[in-house]
Design brief:
The chain has 360 residues and is mainly alpha-helical. 59% of the residues lie in helices and 9% in strands. The chain has 2 domains: 275 residues, Fic-like fold, CATH 1.10.3290; 69 residues, Arc Repressor Mutant, subunit A (Orthogonal Bundle). A 3-stranded mixed β-sheet has the order 1-5-4, with no helix packed on it. A 3-stranded antiparallel β-sheet has the order 6-8-7. The model has no long low-confidence stretch (mean pLDDT 94). It comes from Yoonia maritima.
């Protein structure tokens, strides 16, 4: 099977402007709306949201590769990394991952080869991996599945002797002042990087960090894109393959660019809803600060931490007792007080345990 890097058109990536334009317009509109919501947020809300998004991006990017990180460790490391912007001490792998996420969002100037190699070192901090922080020294194949004695090769990356030159061409393109809309530039950068597959491992995660860096050159992505990609990862892999076909005058990246823009739009929609929820949640607690005792605050905080879908389910007397770790009589008094203060509204639905709607 002839690979796309063996084509005489390599590495000229092109796309169908007419086919892409409506998808780009949708993405740009929703991106603008998200940025508008952020512009109206207070500094504390915005700082909390950005911290959440960096944590989500790290967790989701690893989850795409089937690796589950510890949420609390990543969050603690991200908080430390934000606090010490000049470089927090790296004592464990979660610190290195947080440093990678921050580096991608705060890269100074175009991404260089040495930046990518440093990201690779951070990605595999404390782990033995071949060619750590350097271009790979062996052939690599992308396979659909593997069984004893056979495997289905989806894509064969360029041989290692070609990787340095290909990466030099790629980083030179990143440094150019190209008149491309940022989302399209990010899509092509990701497709090109993944087509080279320059590292021994971690190419997907480095490639998604690269997307963050391309956006950060103009405006950091105000939500987690990898969280949406993780939900659609089979389509993601298919789109990468579809974007590696010869077209008229270049490698036709249109299928991947269209998929990327649509995924970006869906991620932006989710990001906008998340930002609006956070604002409503914080306003709720400010509004009712004088109405809540420690038990009530603990129970409501636990519910809001699970997201808007959980809040919509409301609160039952039994659930309140469990979260607040209190007795039935105390729970009854607490819930009655919350109802009187306008925090809760008794549900009309029947059942063995009285239930309430949360008014936020």
């Amino acid at each position: 099977m002839v690979q796309i890097w063996q084509s005489g058109l390599w590495p000229k990536f092109i796309y169908d402007h007419e086919a892409v334009e409506p998808h780009l317009a949708d993405a740009m509109q929703v991106l603008g709306e998200v940025q508008g919501v952020h512009a109206g947020m207070g500094p504390d809300d915005l700082a909390e949201l950005r911290r959440m998004q960096i944590v989500q991006e790290a967790l989701a990017s690893f989850e795409i590769e089937g690796v589950t990180l510890n949420h609390d460790e990543i969050e603690a490391s991200v908080i430390a990394s934000i606090k010490h912007r000049e470089g927090a001490a790296i004592a464990r792998r979660s610190d290195a991952i947080a440093a990678l996420m921050m580096a991608a969002r705060n890269v100074q100037g175009p991404v260089r080869g040495q930046d990518l190699c440093e990201w690779h070192r951070l990605l595999f901090y404390g782990i033995e991996v071949e060619n750590l922080g350097a271009w790979r020294g062996f052939d690599i194949e992308i396979v659909r599945s593997a069984t004893a004695g056979s495997h289905d090769v989806l894509y064969k990356a360029p041989p290692p002797d070609l990787v340095p030159g290909y990466m030099q061409d790629f980083t030179a393109w990143l440094a150019e002042e190209v008149a491309l809309p940022v989302p399209i530039r990010a899509a092509i950068a990701h497709l090109w990087f993944e087509s080279i597959h320059p590292f021994s491992d971690g190419n997907g995660r480095i490639g998604r960090a690269l997307i963050e860096a391309v956006f950060a050159a103009s405006h950091p992505l105000p939500f987690s894109l990898s969280r949406q990609i993780e939900k659609e990862k089979l389509d993601y892999y298919a789109a990468l393959q579809a974007g590696r076909q010869e077209g008229r005058g270049g490698i036709d990246a249109t299928p991947f660019v269209v998929w990327f823009l649509n995924t970006l739009t869906r991620a932006a929609d989710a990001g906008r809803a998340e930002a609006m929820y956070l604002v409503r949640r914080n306003h709720f607690f400010v509004r009712h600060a004088a109405d809540l005792n420690a038990r009530q605050h603990k129970a409501l905080t636990a519910i809001f931490a699970q997201g808007p879908e959980r809040v919509m389910l409301g609160l039952s007397a039994k659930g309140y007792r469990k979260i607040a770790k209190t007795t039935a009589p105390t729970a009854t008094r607490d819930l009655a007080a919350l109802e009187k203060a306008g925090v809760l509204k008794r549900s009309e639905a029947g059942g063995r345990s009285t239930s309430y709607e949360i008014l936020y």
